[in-house]
């Protein structure tokens, strides 16, 4: 019994020392929390070993035991649970991070829909695949949508004009799309620059700009959409 408790206690003590030692040098929050949780579980298990060893030694001397020895099984159970959660923490954290990234990517893909739809209605050739086709994962679909929006902006660039009345890229793009539908095909670019467009921007900057433009374009479409005629509530007699 005592050999088992000594071996168990030394293992728990080693876990405590190593977890506390390496937790100080890690900047990753979830990994540091997992180590601290594992150390807390090992501390509880070490307390179990001390209580059991004290009970065994005291029992051999006096043939009696303390009443608080009933807490030893509870301490062992809690300690093992904390150790299991702490060791499994990195895997759970990666799953949570992956799920969060998938949700965020889906939201970005959905938020770009107003801009993509407006450009697609003006030129259906920008679609690399049918809109209803579920090809690839969420990251690929977001990347494909950004590429299609780029092609759509390139298609309306000949119709982009220096509109002094437009104070946003969404208004400028909306006017260019309307011009594309009504005017004859333009062969050369107008040379006008879309407001806020940054040539050579990285993907994060470009995505942020496209999301802002898409939200503004959605607001423009809502303002310019005619309201449905009200129903005549007067019943004929």
From TrEMBL:
<dbReference type="Pfam" id="PF20182">
    <property type="entry name" value="DUF6545"/>
</dbReference>
<feature type="transmembrane region" description="Helical">
    <location>
        <begin position="35"/>
        <end position="59"/>
    </location>
</feature>
<feature type="transmembrane region" description="Helical">
    <location>
        <begin position="6"/>
        <end position="23"/>
    </location>
</feature>
<keyword id="KW-1133">Transmembrane helix</keyword>
<feature type="transmembrane region" description="Helical">
    <location>
        <begin position="71"/>
        <end position="92"/>
    </location>
</feature>
<dbReference type="InterPro" id="IPR046675">
    <property type="entry name" value="DUF6545"/>
</dbReference>
<keyword id="KW-0472">Membrane</keyword>
<feature type="domain" description="DUF6545">
    <location>
        <begin position="104"/>
        <end position="218"/>
    </location>
</feature>
<keyword id="KW-0812">Transmembrane</keyword>
<protein>
    <recommendedName>
        <fullName>DUF6545 domain-containing protein</fullName>
    </recommendedName>
</protein>
<dbReference type="InterPro" id="IPR050039">
    <property type="entry name" value="MAB_1171c-like"/>
</dbReference>
<feature type="region of interest" description="Disordered">
    <location>
        <begin position="177"/>
        <end position="199"/>
    </location>
</feature>
């Amino acid at each position: 019994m005592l050999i088992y408790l000594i071996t168990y206690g030394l293992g728990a003590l080693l876990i405590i020392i190593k977890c506390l030692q390496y937790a100080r040098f890690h900047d990753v929050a979830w990994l540091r929390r997992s180590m601290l949780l594992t150390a807390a579980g090992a501390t509880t298990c070490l307390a179990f070993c001390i209580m059991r060893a004290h009970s065994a030694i005291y029992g051999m001397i006096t043939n009696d035991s303390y009443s608080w020895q009933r807490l030893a099984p509870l301490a062992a159970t809690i300690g093992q649970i904390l150790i299991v959660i702490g060791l499994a923490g990195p895997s759970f954290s990666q799953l949570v991070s992956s799920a969060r990234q998938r949700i965020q990517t889906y939201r970005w893909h959905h938020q770009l829909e107003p801009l993509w739809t407006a450009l697609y209605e003006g030129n259906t050739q920008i679609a690399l695949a049918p809109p209803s086709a579920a090809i690839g994962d969420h990251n690929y679909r977001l990347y494909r949508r950004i590429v299609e929006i780029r092609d759509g902006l390139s298609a309306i660039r000949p119709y982009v004009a220096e509109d002094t009345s437009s104070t946003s890229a969404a208004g400028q793009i909306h006017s260019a799309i309307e011009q594309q539908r009504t005017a004859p095909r333009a062969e050369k670019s107008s040379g006008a620059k879309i407001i806020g467009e940054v040539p050579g921007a990285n993907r994060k900057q470009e995505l942020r700009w496209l999301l802002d433009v898409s939200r503004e374009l959605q607001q423009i479409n809502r303002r310019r959409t005619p309201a449905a005629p009200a129903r005549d509530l007067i019943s004929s007699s």
